[in-house]
Amino acid sequence: MLTFITQNEQETEGLGYKLASFLRYEDAPVILLEGPLAAGKTTFTKGIGKALEITRVINSPSYTIMKEYQSKTSNQHLYHFDLYRLEENNQDYDLEEYLYSEGFKVIEWPSKVPNIVPEQYIKVKVTSISEHKRQIEISCHAPYCTYLEERL
Ligand SMILES: Nc1ncnc2c1ncn2[C@@H]1O[C@H](COP(=O)(O)OP(=O)(O)O)[C@@H](O)[C@H]1O
Ligand SMILES: [Mg+2]
């Protein structure tokens, strides 16, 4: 596991950018984002979006569970899930189908659906230390983890 401290929003976004830029799109990683409200999960996701050359503004999908973003220049997809408002044991939402489709998948509040943790994933835990300071722990569970951890 790697631990980072960020001093402001830009640094958190930058870490998301860095993480995404070291991942191969074809590996289609699932990124699980943990941490309380306003920790910085969506901020981190904005950085991932920039690395994928997504120009649309990424914001918290408050009333939808998932938002899909498509890069016009790189032909890359980002599925951004926010499961915060998902009812427990909600079977209606076919999350699993998305998890195995092509593209980056970022999931805020994965603890809402504990039974669908994919085989390979990267877990990012954001903790607030003070008003602008965040601790970000990244643990990788996939074949490319050594490569990634050496570069982050
Ligand atoms: N170091 C930091 N990293 C990320 N966000 C920060 C940081 N310092 C302050 N903030 C603020 O915290 C809030 C994080 O919001 P957001 O990313 O939407 O959180 P979440 O998605 O976890 O609910 C933003 O208002 C942002 O400006
Ligand atoms: Mg959010």
Q: What does it look like?
A:
This protein has helices at residues 9-21, 41-51, 95-99, 145-151; strands spanning 2-6, 30-34, 66-70, 77-82, 104-108, 121-128, 134-141. Strand 4, helix 3 and strand 5 (104-108) form a beta-alpha-beta unit. The chain is globular, with a radius of gyration of 14 Å. A seven-stranded mixed sheet has the order 1-7-6-2-5-4-3. With 152 residues, it is α/β, with parallel strands linked by helices. Bound molecules: adenosine-5'-diphosphate and magnesium ion (MG). Magnesium ion is lined by residues 41-42, 60, 82, 108. Adenosine-5'-diphosphate is lined by residues 6, 8-9, 11-12, 35, 37-43, 60, 108, 132, 134.
Features:
alpha/beta, 28% strand, 152 residues, Rossmann fold, binds magnesium ion
Counted beta strands: 7
Strands side by side in the biggest sheet:
1-7-6-2-5-4-3
H/E order of the elements? EHEHEEHEEEH
Main beta-sheet strand count, sense and barrel state: 7 strands, mixed
Which regions contain 5 or more consecutive residues with pLDDT less than 50? Answer: none
How far is it from the N-terminal to the C-terminal residue, by CA?
Answer: 11 Å
Basic shape: globular
Calculate Rg over CA atoms: 14 Å
Mean pLDDT level: 91
Q: Helical amount among residues, as a percent range? A: 10-25%
Percentage of residues in DSSP E strands: 25-35%
Look at the structure and give the CATH class: Alpha Beta
What is CATH's topology name? Rossmann fold
Bound molecules: adenosine-5'-diphosphate, magnesium ion
